[in-house]
């Protein structure tokens, strides 16, 4: 890291990892803007960014579907696959980016010196307003309740984030998504989410005022 020799990178120290992915659906450009804002903040001189760098290791795959983005596809890859339905068994030939990221995550999961704390997959939503999350449902009530803490904190600290639009589910159709697959793979101290941001705008709390999302606004928020 350019600003400090982070204590969490010393040999032998357990690494607490936050893994972030974005743009698995090529048409969801706001996901790239949000991811860019996260990267810009994490490498900045902001004191909170320094604390985060000193205590956590961030692994970021900013574009899971580069061929789909290049071709101007809305949802699919060059081969015509919705990559966010193939996490369970990605092919190194048909889904190479997904396969590579999954292998990296599994290697970290199997490493006793690494604790994968958070997985967050960034998307954009074409019909709903604000930012919000999808989370997982677990039989363990205490674990399920812990999953709700992070979205609630986001709602308290980000004016565009809506906890009321956040939902927790285990729909069969979403079984192949990163959030669902990794939620079933990782241990009960890990948190897996899909972060959605509207294509359009967000409503300021307590008002009827719609604030449009722009590239700059997504990066700053």
TrEMBL record:
Taxonomic superkingdom: Eukaryota
PROSITE patterns referenced in this protein's UniProt entry, alphabetically: PEPTIDASE_M14
Keyword Hydrolase recorded: yes
Pfam families reported in the protein's UniProt record: Peptidase_M14
Active-site residues from the entry: 196 (proton donor/acceptor)
GO biological process: proteolysis
Cofactor: Zn(2+)
Keywords for this protein: Carboxypeptidase, Hydrolase, Protease
Domain Peptidase M14: 1-221
GO molecular function, one term: zinc ion binding
Family: Belongs to the peptidase M14 family.
Listed name of the protein: CBPC6 carboxypeptidase
Lineage: Eukaryota, Metazoa, Chordata, Craniata, Vertebrata
